């Protein structure tokens, strides 16, 4: 049996107010085609189905459409919740999706391991693999902290409970069969994983990364949460599949892929995902940027999205008008234009302008004092009073 491992779909995500629906729809279609071309019999989604705990209706619709597509292809689908996912949202359709060979696990099954250890069977009905479907393990579901515990004690307690739960699931799978591969899942940060702008820390304040040595010897470990595809602890069968599309501009140059694990050879391979929409960050002075944009190749399908950073203190309004004229009639959109902090020229007076987006309230007040040429001793008193007002405004009522 071939099992496809993917993660971090983040359905419903947007960039600067622009929906990723078209990209996600193309990915789901590509996934279905890949199931057919590669002879995939099971897909494992290792967390973060949705981008938020309250996904828009179109994101839920796409998720359910994917379930239907995979069911038509007679492909089993295992979904575990990630830290972005709402347990209640995934649970609301869980029983219905089970009728379509889609099995959703949202919480640890402490009392009944059979609820989260799933059997994957070949077309002839023989057992091909066992999956310990382990979702993102929220601290509140794992431990009960006591008053006065230190941060180090809480970290140790949580790590031990995660280790205990993984071992419980693994041991139960072994009791079913020791002859077939045992696959684990997880949505967490393992020691050595690289994070990007769009990856939010989990277990904040208690446990930021788990040591691979705490987990049992799974034949394959399907991980989610890190958006870059990579192995863990030098083990090519313990992997982050990465997100299917770049979630932020800093992921634009990171290759996107899924992993395919073969239960017969017990070997995993990566399969590249096409780029559905190019994201590109450009930096430089205004004339240089205009030239770079003019020379860009236009994609055939979805428009390229551009993130522009200007290394000059200029008035962005007229420059944005030039950018709009340059992109008119071309298959590209500018989603963000900003200046580097250094280029804002807040205090030297040499720049064309500085906007409130570039500076905080205290810096605005400091600049006002300079412009009004307030004498130093009085300026210090005024700054202290202003700081007090700002602090009072920032305090919750």
TrEMBL record:
It comes from the Bacteria. SUPFAM superfamilies: Metallo-dependent phosphatases. Keywords: DNA recombination, DNA replication, Endonuclease, Exonuclease, Hydrolase, Nuclease. Pfam families: Metallophos, SbcD_C. Residues 275-371 form the Nuclease SbcCD subunit D C-terminal domain. InterPro entries: Calcineurin-like_PHP (IPR004843), DNA_Repair-Maintenance_Comp (IPR050535), Metallo-depent_PP-like (IPR029052), Mre11_N (IPR041796), SbcD (IPR004593), SbcD_C (IPR026843). Gene3D superfamilies: 3.30.160.720, 3.60.21.10. GO terms for biological process: DNA recombination; DNA replication. SbcCD cleaves DNA hairpin structures. These structures can inhibit DNA replication and are intermediates in certain DNA recombination reactions. The complex acts as a 3'->5' double strand exonuclease that can open hairpins. It also has a 5' single-strand endonuclease activity. Heterodimer of SbcC and SbcD. Belongs to the SbcD family. This is Nuclease SbcCD subunit D. It comes from Marinomonas fungiae. The gene is sbcD.
